[in-house]
Amino acid sequence: MLADAAERWSRSSVPADAWQRAFPETLMALVHRWGLELEAILPHGGLPVCAVRRPDGQPAVLKLGRPADLNQEAAMFAADGGRSTARLLEHDPDAAAILVERLGRALGDVEPDPLLQCRRLAETLQLWWQVPLSVAPDHSMHFGGSKARGLRSILDEQGPRFGGAAPVAIARARHLADALATDEHPEVVCHGDPHPWNLLEHLDGGWRFVDPDGLLCEKAYDLGVVLRGHGAHVIALERARPGSGSDFLAELAGELGAITGVDVQRILDWAFVERVTTGLYCRMLGHEADGVEHLTAAEVLATA
């Protein structure tokens, strides 16, 4: 069963990288070495995530991927120490594999209220931001170490190809990215992708993040990522009463700012740029429905 499952995943993915071609053998070697019982192999953002059990019966998750990505993720889990993320149980840097404790349901599946989602995410981010700055990878050679400039490059490169239906949003996002870059102040290791489906229930009754990117940036950036969702709701609100979608986001940003002490307008600015660039990125990767929703929401907000 193990070999068949591994081969099925390998055939279903694009065999572009050496780690993908070696996935079946790597998986079987890790399962035997760590004494794991394989329960399922699930798609997860294009990477294999395996539900397993350890020899003592403890449920866990085995994740494999590109060495640069997975080994950095392991460093993030280790630095956090289970404070705000799933606890790292094993790490094989040569195989680019990590084993972490298995968590429960995602916040997005448990709590439908956007305001309560924001509270849980902000509270957990406050714990995550305690990760030492030295753990963040060195991106100083990329866009001068500026996340805003990196997002501006996405707008310039992908906007003409995928943003034709959102010209006002593209223009506004460019303006905001330029403004953010002028006084961007890297202050914490940001999670990078703190959305309601990356925050999961823990057995202790709290919440833990998964999939930390780990980049040196400012708190407002992470909070902007929290706010970039809710596209369908924003569209519906704006079409029913112009300005109500913006009011809804301002209320959520106010809650995030009250919890974290971060400037509310800066959260909103990062959120708008993230909404547009995420829409472009989704369309570029073929996730058309998600991309269109992000871009449509941004255009409605920009033209309201």
Task: Furnish the topology, listing elements before pairings.
Blueprint: H1 2-12, H2 18-21, H3 23-33, E1 37-44, E2 47-53, E3 59-64, H4 67-80, E4 88-92, E5 97-101, H5 107-110, H6 114-128, H7 147-162, H8 167-182, E6 188-190, E7 199-201, E8 207-209, E9 215-217, H9 219-227, H10 231-240, H11 244-260, H12 264-284, H13 288-303
Antiparallel strand pairs: 1-2, 2-3, 3-5, 4-5, 6-9, 7-8
Architecture overview:
Helices cover 54% and strands 14% of the residues. The protein is α+β, with helices and mostly antiparallel strands and 304 residues long. It folds into 2 domains: 100 residues, Phosphorylase Kinase, domain 1 (2-Layer Sandwich); 197 residues, Aminoglycoside 3'-phosphotransferase, Chain: A, domain 2 (Alpha-Beta Complex), CATH 3.90.1200. Helix 6 packs parallel to helix 11 and helix 12 packs antiparallel against helix 13. Strand 7 and strand 8 form a beta hairpin. The chain is globular and about 60 Å long. A 5-stranded antiparallel β-sheet has the order 1-2-3-5-4, with helices on both faces. Strands 6-9 form a two-stranded antiparallel ribbon. The protein has a two-stranded antiparallel sheet with strand order 7-8. The termini are far apart.
Descriptive keywords:
five-stranded antiparallel β-sheet, 54% helix, alpha+beta, Phosphorylase Kinase, domain 1, two-stranded antiparallel sheet, Aminoglycoside 3'-phosphotransferase, Chain: A, domain 2, 2 domains
